[in-house]
């Protein structure tokens, strides 16, 4: 659970993301593919639509940061879909780390350890919920 201060820090840094918008998602994917080139094959060649999906997901998480239960079903569904894309459990940590690093680079001197902690906590909640959906999807397909 995020504290009030952490919620404010995530929202504050989300404004920097919003200003960068497409540049932010492009930077994220460039950083991700540089750090984990093996995940590149999990994505389409044309990343425009994927960047839009990422941005939409970030916005939805920010909008519901005070009430994460509101998007649990959606995040579980997203996790289940990611199984079909070939996403592995280990990818979630990499994606979270690269997203935090990308945001910190965008914010430059405005970034703090408190921002990092807030984003890590928020992404931990997102990832654990998505992984619940992924696990249920695998269990469901194994029971068939």
The quaternary structure here is single chain
CATH superfamily: Globins
CATH topology: Globin-like
Low-confidence stretches: none
* Helix content, binned percent: over 70%
Determine and state the CATH class.
Mainly Alpha
Number of domains: 1
Strand content: under 5%
**Annotated CATH architecture:** Orthogonal Bundle
Q: So what's the overall shape?
A: globular
Radius of gyration: 15 Å
Number of helices: 6
Number of strands: 0
Task: Write a brief structural summary.
With 144 residues, the protein is mostly helical. It has 6 helices and no strands.
Explain the overall architecture.
By secondary structure, the protein is mostly helical. It has a single domain, classed as Globins (Globin-like), CATH 1.10.490.10. Helices cover 76% and strands 0% of the residues. The chain is built from six helices and no strands. It has helices at residues 4-20, 22-35, 48-63, 72-85, 89-107, 113-142. Helix 1 packs across helix 6, helix 2 packs across helix 3 and helix 4 (72-85) packs across helix 6 (113-142). The mean pLDDT is 93.
Short key terms for the protein model shown above:
144 residues, mainly alpha, Globin-like, 6 helices
Q: What's the arrangement of secondary structure elements?
A:
Layout lengths: L3 H17 L1 H14 L12 H16 L8 H14 L3 H19 L5 H30 L2
Helix pairs in contact: 1-6, 2-3, 2-5, 4-6, 5-6
């Amino acid at each position: 659970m995020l504290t009030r201060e952490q919620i404010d820090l995530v929202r504050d840094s989300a404004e920097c993301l919003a200003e960068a918008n497409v540049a932010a998602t492009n930077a994220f994917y460039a950083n991700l593919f540089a750090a984990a080139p093996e995940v590149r094959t999990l994505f389409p060649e044309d990343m425009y639509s994927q960047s839009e999906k990422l941005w939409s997901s970030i916005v939805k998480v920010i909008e519901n940061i005070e009430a994460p239960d509101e998007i649990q079903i959606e995040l579980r569904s997203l996790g289940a879909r990611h199984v079909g894309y070939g996403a592995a459990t280990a990818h979630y940590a990499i994606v979270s780390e690269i997203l935090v690093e990308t945001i910190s680079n965008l914010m430059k001197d405005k970034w703090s350890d408190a921002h990092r902690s807030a984003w890590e906590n928020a992404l931990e909640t997102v990832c654990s919920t998505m992984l619940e959906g992924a696990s249920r999807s695998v269990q469901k397909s194994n029971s068939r």
